[in-house]
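Predict the 3D structure for this chain.
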Amino acid sequence: MNLKDLEYVKAVAHYKHFRKAADACYVSQPTLSGQVKKLEQELGVTLFDRSTKQVTLTRQGERLLTQIKLVLEQTQILKELAATSSAPLQGRVKVGIIPTIAPYLLPTLLTSMKEAFADSQFTFVEMQTSTILAALDNGELDIAILADVPELKLYHTVNLYKEDFLVALSAQTPLAKRSKIALDELKACNLLMLSDGHCFKDQAQRFCFAAGVDVSNQYQGNSLETLLALVAMDDGVTFVPKLACIERPGIAYLPIFPSQQRSVVLASRKHYPHLAGVELLANWLSDHPSLHKQLTKALG
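Done. Predicted structure below.
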């Protein structure tokens, strides 16, 4: 029995298919199938029911898979604890970032970030918050940039910045001539939101509900840009984080009172071996002049 065999079992259980599991593990299907069969013989149990088109775990397999995942997780923790926590970020660093931050933060900072951290090869993946946390847990991601949520108490986090929520509305509406807007005034508007699963929606809904403002079900999707396209057509209004308030034809942005904000953080596992590098990257990001300029710029 070896750890690689346990990884194979975990992959087959996830993909419910030997070939897909083999592809994910970068081995041939015969190699993976043979190692899983060898492990079953060593344990004296049948882990998978192979009699149907979709491979499924047996009852014994389900019970053992829980322990297999635990062994792999603890092994990863052991490896990370053995590494020096003072080491900088070097080599490949996989970064998860939520969709309401990625398109607006990365174009501003990516080039200078690569120059400042020349020994790091950053890979960025857009994910919703729940997916990011799961990927941090299983080691698929090293760090993440996301809005602060209660679940992050279980992770190492460093504050990056705070940004206001603003209301985006058609520049053709009478409200667009105002200098700001009260939350309860949005009761008369068609308020558009992203679909479930976006922490941005969860945060915005909380203060909407507190103000007695209903949310429209007209659009359920993942794109803030699509919401803004509907706003430009005067088909509703939506909330926008300050960093995303770039000039767009037909759209005006108004501050909200009482003001609403979100905190954006850099997160990693508490046992990640390069926490010193995480702190260094977070400080660099939060102090970057381009970020400060975007967050403090006046909106016309």
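The mean pLDDT is 87.
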